[in-house]
Design a protein that fits this description.
Oxidized Rhodanese, domain 1, 2 domains, 4-stranded parallel β-sheet, 12 helices, transferase
């Protein structure tokens, strides 16, 4: 199996797996910045058997302070959530969303950082499923409790590399900022109190890594985007965004092409909350 097939799954393959009836956990992670609660949309229609997952409530631990707007959940809380979603040991997991792979990217990163080895993002998300003629189910799914165990208790030191604020600003990694250009430049900051970016970071808006139909760029397309920014994926690469959600789309795109990148989980919301940290504005050359 190539790198792309370990990260992504096409609607046709998912439909075949559902028809085959083998063990499979499907998680619906609809979320967007302006509509964080995706449950109403889920209830209106979802992939058969899919369980709704709240990014804000279950893939985030708001009791953690000092780590940005979407702190990572603890291993204990994640294990409890995974079992409530019906995730079982050794059973493949498919995650999907309905907005630019943000929700599914976050779920994929969190679950793989927790040690789950077979987690894939539905390429193209909900729109691709519907466009392919996939079956649709309404109402809530109440799964049998799962039994999965999360070996890492601190996802900040889990199975995927992370960066602290100090490491993100040290200049030792090629740093990518996944936010929209106007937020990166500081020209229009509508979410966090300070506009701008971490000095040295190059802007790679996460949505530019998707094609018009919401699927991930192929390897050549990704390589072109990196080359335009002077990024060599063979050297250490890190990514951040506003609060550690959409940067996971960048990391998933790199992983699909066979490259590993580190996440700064607290991202700009953590960086900009500390007075005295340097802030760059405009576009990095």
């Amino acid at each position: 199996m190539n790198s792309r097939d370990t990260v992504l799954i096409a609607p046709a393959e998912l439909a075949d797996r559902i028809r085959a009836g083998g063990p499979l956990a499907i998680l619906d992670v609809r979320w967007r910045l302006d509509v964080p609660d995706g449950r109403p949309a889920y209830l209106d229609g979802h992939i058969p058997g899919a369980v709704y997952v709240s990014l804000d409530d279950e893939l985030t631990d708001h009791s953690t302070t000092g780590r940005g707007r979407h702190p990572l959940p603890s291993g204990d809380k994640l294990q409890e959530a995974l079992r409530s979603w019906g995730v079982r040991e050794g059973v493949p997991v498919v995650v999907y969303d309905d907005w630019n792979r943000a929700g599914s990217g976050r779920a994929w990163w969190v679950l793989t950082a927790a040690g789950l080895s077979d987690v894939r993002i539905l390429d193209g998300g909900w729109a691709a499923w519907v466009a392919s003629g996939g079956a649709v189910e309404t109402g809530a799914v109440d799964p049998q409790p799962g039994n999965v165990t999360v070996p890492q208790r601190d996802l900040y030191a889990g199975s995927r590399p992370t960066l602290t604020a100090e490491q993100a600003g040290a200049g030792d990694v090629a740093l990518l900022d996944a936010r929209a250009p106007e937020r990166y430049s500081g020209d229009s900051e509508t979410v966090d109190p300070v506009g701008g970016h971490i000095p040295g970071a190059k802007n790679l808006p996460f949505a530019t890594l998707l094609t018009a139909d919401g699927t991930f760029l192929d390897d050549a397309g990704l390589a072109r985007m990196l080359s335009e920014r002077g990024i060599d994926p063979a050297v250490p690469v890190g990514a951040y965004c506003g609060s550690g959600v959409t940067a996971t789309v960048v990391i998933a795109a790199l992983a699909a092409a066979g490259h590993e990148a580190a996440l700064f989980p607290g991202s700009w919301s953590e960086w900009s909350s500390e007075p005295g940290r340097p802030v760059a504005r405009g576009v990095e050359a």
